Amino acid sequence: MKILYAIQGTGNGHLARATEIIPRLREFAETDVLISGIQSDIELPFPVRYQFYGLSFMFGSKGGVDIRRTVMKLRPYRFVRDLIGLPVKNYDLVLTDFEPVSAWACKLKRKRCIGVSHQNSVLHPQAPRPGKTNITGKFILKNYAPATEKYGYHFIELDNRNFTPVIRQDIYNAVPKNKGHYTVYLPAFSDSEIIAALSGFPHIRWEVFSKRSKTNYSAGNIHFQPVSFEKFNTSFIHCEGILCNAGFETPAEALYMGKKLCVIPMKNQYEQACNAALLNSLGVTVLDGLSGNTGKLKKWTESARRIQIEYPNNFADKLREIVSTSRN
User: Fold this and answer.
1) CATH fold of 169-302, please?
2) Nearest alpha-carbon partner for 301 in 256, 249, 251, 239
């Protein structure tokens, strides 16, 4: 059996999850890898067969998606050329983690495509939603990467097609410690915005992984470094708490490790608004931005409240079920 596993390369969460999924797929099938997108900071430790420009959302500097830059960076001709040229019919199965080139290539060529992604679970009827409906955001989630069948991951199990997160083995096997610092990953905020918000907590060591900085530097008690998969893991495992956007992988791993968690959903990103609604229902601290929330940040840092969820290490079995079902 030959599988094409296609990964969304906007941000790092999809790629981080792929480091666990690809080796499992290769245990029972020949697997080629496709990545599209231009916003990731990490590289996979596996050969990548196809690398495409794709459709990426561009991060701004004030806490949200920069819609203008996103539109300016679109390359529709290139996107159509790539999906037409992608030989999806050479594969017995196409799996897409919210990756649009493979999904639309399959739709165009009438090829079965199975979507396995967090985004597939976000609109589940049992998943909490933000109070304000975003019609455009819902449309994107439904149509960005169309699939014949859909499976999803979420912070809680919703049904037999929507299950709990993939936790990386580095996290499963880690012995968490609390060395007192706070780990920060907020790619939609500029370094200056982060400094303005966190400098009011001089007694805390903040370890910030910056999407904009190419070198290590400090601003008082706030220590910046470029995004690094390995260094982020070390900081994360040893932190007291983590301040991050309302994505999926990092909050899920924080919940698994029982770390103090505070999330800020990106503006103009409906998926993150939905994530924040579910996390809030679990008791996680949710902020609407960095500025103007000093009081809430102070309360969070001083709180001893931690939420821990013992996610099962069963994603390999779920993958086998999905692949096995696709053969029928």
Assistant:
1) Rossmann fold (3.40.50)
2) 239
Q: Which two tokens stand for residue 153?
A: 């991951």
State the architecture of 2-168+312-326 in CATH terms: 3-Layer(aba) Sandwich (3.40)
Helices (H), 109-248: 119-122, 135-143, 169-172, 191-198, 229-237
The C-alpha atoms of residue 82 and residue 60 are separated, in whole angstroms, by 27
**Coil vs helix vs strand at 64:** strand
> Can you tell me which residue has the tokens 């893991």?
233
- Are 162 and 154 in contact, with CB atoms under 8 Å apart? yes
Q: Closest Cα partner for 57 from 70, 73, 48, 44?
A: 70
Residue carrying structure tokens 């196409």: 94
Mean pLDDT, residues 228-236 taken together: 94
Same fold, 2-168+312-326 and 169-302: yes
What's the pTM?
0.94
Q: How far apart are CA 100 and CA 152, in angstroms?
A: 16
Is 126:161 a contact under the CB 8 Å cutoff? no
Average pLDDT over residues 12-37: 93
Q: Six-digit token pair at 278?
A: 């579910």
Q: Which residues contact 132 (CB under 8 A, 6 or more apart)?
A: 273
The pLDDT value given to residue 131? 85
- Check whether 133 has a pLDDT greater than 70: yes
User: For the chain, what are the domain ranges?
Assistant: 2-168+312-326, 169-302
CA neighbor of 247 nearest in space, from 88, 54, 3, 12: 12
